[in-house]
Structures are given as structure tokens and as C-alpha cells.
Amino acid sequence: MNTEILSTHTPELFQKAVRRAVELLRAGEVVALPTETVYGLAANALDEKAVAKIFQIKGRPANNPIIVHVAGNEMAKRCVNHWSEPADKLSQSFWPGPLTLVLPRAKEIPGNVTAGGETVGVRWPGHPFIQAVIRECGFPLAAPSANLSNQISPTNAEHVRQQLGGKIPLIVDGAQSQVGIESTVLDLSVSPPQILRPGMIHAESLAAVIGNIQHPTSDAQHPKLKSPGLLKKHYSPKAKLLVLNWKDDADLKSQLVTRHLSPATCFVIAHTKIPSGENFAGVSVIPHDAEAFARALYAELHRCDEAGAKLIVVERPPESPEWSGVADRLRRAAA
Ligand code: TXA
Ligand code: MG
């Protein structure tokens, strides 16, 4: 299949891309669209056959439910059978934005979207392009991240092309995703509400709006997999990834050697203690700021994959709440 790639950087191109995306989505096709978190692989969320194509294209297991993207609270309410007070408060505080709310599903949502479950994840994304597409379609869009199952999520159109080029009719280029990691997923169908996947909207911010919430549980405490995004290994680059702290270059080298790893084959991603380039296969500096770090992280991992890296070492991020989403993705990538 020939994959059309459309840009959006002038008002005319933006409108043209919206029209083309809407045309394909109305015809039951699957297209890759930018969102502020990561790029999404979108289909009409009310069309079971279109949604089935998403699973097939990604190689996604059927037990992994897909987030439904809406443009506005009215559309969100039509996707669920009970819009609770916490949902209302959270949507007012954080939508449009990188927060997915899991609620009891409406009957209109096909079973493959919810993976046969009784809940649906709903998100109003902040990116103007996907908002315009949803408004124009008039129906919500089911969209997982636009990567092959278990690979790193794409944060630009080129990442999508590398993984899905030739498999979908359209990729819309809406520039670099500004958040850079996937949305926080909060389950409001249980009491107290539970974070299923940490993201840039962290537990403390959510608790400030709705009170008590439960932090993510580890796999061991989670015998019945509620959200496959909780799988320990997920979001991984092809290389082995380690998260380490080091005092200086010599310390980092000796930690690698102790692990029988060669510094010369190692790509280092550092934010504070920047090693000198000559000792390692590559060194890149990532900002020491949670938001900027998240924005850059997947692009760095994609770059290491492209360079054929066998080993990536990332300098451990701080432990404060605003870093919890980044720390979560690094833990999974290292698993
Ligand atoms: O930022 C994002 O959330 C991106 C963009 C495209 O919106 N989407 C995304 O989708 O990351 P995906 O499919 O790659 O990850 C969705 C996560 C999965 O871990 C899935 O298991 C969980 O959300 N999820 C979706 N619906 C759920 C539900 N009804 N109950 C529990 N978990 C759910
Ligand atoms: Mg994903």
C-alpha cells in the first residue's frame, strides 16, 4: 500500500489534511494522526470492523483495550454510561490534555475497543489537528499509539513511517509531540480511583482535584491484568537498556565493566553528569527538567535503535512526583 504523508504547517495544508483524514476515517480506514502525547493510529471508534484493522496492523493482542478520543465533554459522555462527579472535575482541570479516564462503557462502544470489558478509556487530546478531525467526523476515534505492538511510541511522523509505512494509507505530520510520553490512565470505575499508567499528569495533581487515589500497583499485586499497559516489559527499544547513577566517567565505565558490558558499545543518555564522548559509542544530553525530558525521551531511544545500539544507559531521573511518568517508562524499557 502506498502511504500518503501530509503536512499541516500552513492553514491550507492543515485543512487539506483534515479533509483527507476525515474522508478515510468515514470510509472505515485507519490513519496515523498527531496527538500532544504520542502519535495515534486512529479509526472510527463506533465501527467494529475499522477498529479490528488497528489490532491487525499493530499486531496488538485482542485483550488490550483501546483509548477512545473525543473532542469535548458532550462526546465523552456519549461514550460512557455514567459520567461521575470525579470525571467532571478532572475533565475541567485537565482536558484537553494527557489524561485518560476509565469509566463504565456505553453500549454503542464496540466490544473490541474495550477488549470485551465493561469499561472504556476516554481522552480529549490537546493537539489541534486531531481535535479538528474528530469534530469534522462527528464520531469519536479509537487510537492506540501508532507503533507496532511492544515497540517505542512515535513522537513524530518519521517514527510512524518507519514502523507503519506501507501498512496504512495516511500519516499526518503534526510536528513533534509536545508531551512525548503516553497519557496518564486513571481508572474511575473503582474506589478509590486507581492510576493504571503514570504519565505527565501525576498522582499529586490528580489527588488535588478529586482527593484520595491509589498509586500504580506492581505486576505481582496485579494478578488479573486490568490494563496490559501495566505489563512490566512494554515500550522497549531494541537495545538492552540500563538506568544508572554515576559519579564520573570512570565510575560509569567500571559499573559497565562489572556487568561485563563494553563502554565502547554503549550509548549514554545523560541529564546531569555528562560523560565525555570519546569513551562511549554515543553520548546525548537530555534536559534536566521532567517535561523537556519526557518530550525528548522517545526520540532519543528511536535514534539509538536506528544507530543499531546494543546497549543504552540512561542516567537515573530524580524521584519527585513530576518525574513519575518518565521513571515508569524507563523502568519498563529496562525490564
Ligand atoms: O497518550 C496516549 O494515551 C496515546 C495517544 C495516542 O492518545 N495512546 C496510547 O494508547 O498510549 P495505547 O493503546 O498505546 O495505550 C493505552 C493504554 C493501554 O495500556 C491500555 O491497556 C489502557 O490504556 N486502556 C485502554 N482502555 C482501557 C480500559 N478500558 N481499562 C483499562 N485500561 C485501558
Ligand atoms: Mg502503546
Descriptive notes:
By secondary structure, this protein is of the alpha/beta class. It has two domains: 4-221, DHBP synthase (Alpha-Beta Complex), CATH 3.90.870; 240-334, 3-Layer(aba) Sandwich (Rossmann fold). The chain contains ten helices and 14 strands. The protein has an eight-stranded mixed beta sheet, with helices on both faces. Strands 11-14-12-13 form a four-stranded parallel beta sheet, with helices on one face. Strand 9 and strand 10 (194-197) form a beta hairpin. Helix 1 packs across helix 5 (128-137). It is globular, with a radius of gyration of 20 Å. The chain starts with a strand and ends with a helix. Residues 219-224 have low confidence and may be disordered. Magnesium ion binds at residues 144-145, 153. Magnesium ion binds next to loops.
> Going across the major beta sheet, what is the strand order?
2-3-7-4-6-5-9-10
Classify the helix fraction into a percent range: 25-40%
The structural class is alpha/beta
Q: Please identify which CATH superfamily of the largest domain we are dealing with.
A: DHBP synthase
Architecture of the largest domain, according to CATH?
Alpha-Beta Complex
- Number of DSSP-assigned strands: 14
Tally of alpha and pi helices: 10
Instruction: Enumerate the distinct ligands.
Output: threonylcarbamoyladenylate, magnesium ion
Order of helices and strands: EHEEHEHHEEHEHEEEHEHEEHEH
Number of domains: 2
The low-pLDDT segments are: 219-224
Q: What is the highest CATH level, the class of the largest domain?
A: Alpha Beta
Overall pLDDT metric: 94
How much of the residues is beta strand, in percent? 15-25%
**Overall geometry:** globular
CATH-derived topology of the largest domain: DHBP synthase
Distance separating the two termini: 35 Å
